[in-house]
């Protein structure tokens, strides 16, 4: 059974900091890895999708990397803003389903 | 449609009642998935369909849970004889097909069993 772990579980930073969220997974035979953002009471918004053949993806202030050999992915958020406050979930796709980590709850203080 | 639509958004039901949760995927998406998310945790897989065929139901907790997608589009997740432990956010997602495509999630249905 695939396992996905996210560290830290919670993070509080002042506005403007660059930060890194970590995701580790046990199954290296993945199709892709997806990072989502979850806001309270709302759905999951896809942020970045990294295919197994790729090493990283970038969207605005977000950059996600993938290292299959070590079973790790990181989400880098540059110049954090209060609007970035949310729960960030990573999920690996190995086979027919996504397996999610427990998420990192991010709070960016003004 | 433009996104994945789930209804109802909120459902409060009495213990022992049956509930049906609906998911309308993105038009043309072959694969449809149901997940359940407890507070403070990541979503957990329940079941998925390719077209109308249920390919994997290994995540359904017990036989009170069932799902169908009779015409390969809209899906219904049914919970019979609900129990308080069934209270959670139920999320539906669709994907163009199995493999290298990402998932798009709906807003979810918050189920509360009282």
Polypeptide structure, described:
The complex is a heterodimer of chains A (110) and B (114). Helices cover 0% and strands 58% of the residues of chain A. Chain A has 110 residues and is mostly beta strands. By secondary structure, chain B is mainly β. Chain B is built from no helices and eleven strands. Chain B has strands at residues 5-7, 10-13, 19-24, 31-37, 44-50, 53-56, 65-68, 75-79, 88-95, 104-105, 109-113. In chain B, the strands form two sheets. In chain B, strands 2, 4, 5, 6, 9, 10 and 11 form a seven-stranded mixed β-sheet that branches. Chain B has a four-stranded antiparallel β-sheet with strand order 1-3-8-7, with no helix packed on it. Chain B starts with a strand and ends with a strand. At the A-B interface, strand 4, strand 5, strand 9 and strand 10 of A face strand 4, strand 5 and strand 10 of B.
Instruction: Identify low-pLDDT runs of chain A.
Output: none
Alpha-carbon Rg of chain B, integer: 13 Å
Give the biggest sheet of chain B.
7 strands, mixed
Order of helices and strands of chain A: EEEEEEEEEEE
Instruction: Report the total helices of chain B.
Output: 0
Q: What series of H and E elements makes up the topology of chain B?
A: EEEEEEEEEEE
Key terms for this structure?
heterodimer; A: 110 residues; mainly beta; five-stranded antiparallel sheet; B: seven-stranded mixed sheet; four-stranded antiparallel sheet
Give the SSE map:
The complex is a heterodimer of chains A (110) and B (114).
Chain A: E1 4-7, E2 10-14, E3 19-25, E4 32-38, E5 44-51, E6 56-59, E7 62-67, E8 72-77, E9 86-93, E10 98-100, E11 104-109
Parallel strand pairs in A: 2-11
Antiparallel strand pairs in A: 1-3, 3-8, 4-5, 4-9, 6-7, 7-8, 9-10, 9-11
Chain B: E1 5-7, E2 10-13, E3 19-24, E4 31-37, E5 44-50, E6 53-56, E7 65-68, E8 75-79, E9 88-95, E10 104-105, E11 109-113
Parallel strand pairs in B: 2-11
Antiparallel strand pairs in B: 1-3, 3-8, 4-5, 4-9, 5-6, 7-8, 9-10, 9-11
């Amino acid at each position: 059974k695939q396992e996905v772990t996210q560290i830290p579980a919670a993070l509080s930073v002042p506005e403007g900091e660059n930060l890194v969220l970590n995701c580790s997974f046990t199954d290296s035979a993945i199709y892709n890895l997806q990072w989502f953002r979850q806001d309270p009471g709302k759905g999951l918004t896809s942020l970045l999708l990294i295919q197994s053949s790729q090493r990283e993806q970038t969207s605005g202030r977000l950059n996600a990397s993938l290292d299959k050999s070590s079973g790790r992915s990181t989400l880098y958020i540059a110049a954090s803003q209060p609007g970035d406050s949310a729960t960030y979930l990573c999920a690996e796709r190995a086979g027919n389903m996504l397996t999610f980590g427990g998420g990192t709850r991010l709070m960016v203080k003004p | 449609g433009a996104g994945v639509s789930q209804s109802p958004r909120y459902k409060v039901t009495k213990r022992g009642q049956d509930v049906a949760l609906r998911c309308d995927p993105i038009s043309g998406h072959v694969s449809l998935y149901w997940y359940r998310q407890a507070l403070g945790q990541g979503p957990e897989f329940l079941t998925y369909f390719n077209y109308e065929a249920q390919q994997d139901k290994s995540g359904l907790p017990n036989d009170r849970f069932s799902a169908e997608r009779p015409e390969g589009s809209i899906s219904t997740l049914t919970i019979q004889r609900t129990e308080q432990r069934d209270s959670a956010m139920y999320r539906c997602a669709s994907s163009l097909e199995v493999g290298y495509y990402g998932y798009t999630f709906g807003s979810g249905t918050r189920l509360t069993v009282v």
